[in-house]
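B., you asked whether I could sanity-check this one before it goes into the benchmark set. Here's the sequence:
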Amino acid sequence: MQTSSRQRKLHTLDAVALTVGSMVGAGIFSVLALTVKTAGVSAIAAWVLVVVLSLPMALTFSDLVGVLSQSGGPYVYIRDKSRPWLGLWTAWLFFVSAAGAAQALFIALTGMLRELGVHHVFGWSSLIVLILAGVTSVGIHMGALVQRVLTIGTVGLLVLCIVIGCMHPTQVSLARSSDWAIHLGLPRDVLQATFFAFWTYSGWEAVAVPSGAYKSRRSLAFGMIIGSLLVGVLYILVACSAIASVPVDQLSRYTNPLILVGRLCGPVASAVIGWGALVVVVGSLLSWLIATTTLVQATTRDGLLPLPRSWRWYRGEYHPLVPWGIALVLVLGSRLPIFSAAVAASSLTALIGYAVVFAVALFDSEPWGGVFRNHGKRRVFAALSLLTTVLFIVFSGWNNVWPALVLALCGAALLWLRRKYWSPPVPSITRTERTS
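And here's what the prediction gave me:
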């Protein structure tokens, strides 16, 4: 089912906002401390390296939206270009990854509220999630509008941290160090810090999912590129300013080390950064909710999820009850230990999904009107993206890889059971329909 022109309400700014919301989450606070703890001052090199390595991925995902005729992102692309079962398996991988990201964001939300002195943090966190579900249920245009406001707050917070850090370049961390080797870090430490930083610099699949709601595909593509570059520059500058103004050993001990940067200007700035971090997490949750809702609706339209028939044939971007259902699953599931344990192993499933997307793009012989006019250049960037993804998977180590493989095999088993015992027709899209 294709999206009518009257439903295509999103523009380039919405794509930028969704990109920033998907990429900038709670990770910038916790992972910044982790990279500094791992590589010391050389954590700056790790942030630069992750932006450079991830650029081909951002360009490839931006280019893929040129072939999408409806919402669904990587699922629709692989379904149309390769095999329906492979598209569904990729959707499963991103569903699992989204569950893990949502759980991490919900935990971060409760933790930040607790640090700010708020009582009954679970109740307040659940209320925030339900409010976001209400916003999303109004329509994707309303969700994108609120996302714009939250993105302005997110960018403003990071810029504030950069300005404060630049105003206090004391270099105390280096001055107090008697062993420079500890702070400079080794190449291996930089690579490990790069691996940690990568988890805060991804999420393009979430931006590509609501592709059918944009005025034009090029608006989405260029919005993703602009948003990715903006986030990369902000991350590098935040790391530089934090390391230049706060002792390295202190940065590595705090869950939200940017609060230390705020304290350089007094308690008011520290409180603003503390509450601003809450805005960042809320914005990331909204972006996740929009993407997951749209992906659920896309798979429901293809008859792949056993949801009510009225949901399947809904003519809008998604049925209003879908975000409410997803929000309730998140709130109720967060109370189950088995759910938390399962999604803790889901971070690498997104990388496996990336590898599938890049492999299909690499071997796709049919050109399309995307960011790249030259199909050979498109394949080069797809190959670089696939190589980088495989290296990240290998570098993560077997202890992290095997849980993701188990989750991937669970998805394959569910596909087999679906095909054997419950197999509704999967639509086949012709070349004419693809290019219409």
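One thing to flag: The mean pLDDT is 81. Otherwise nothing jumped out at me.
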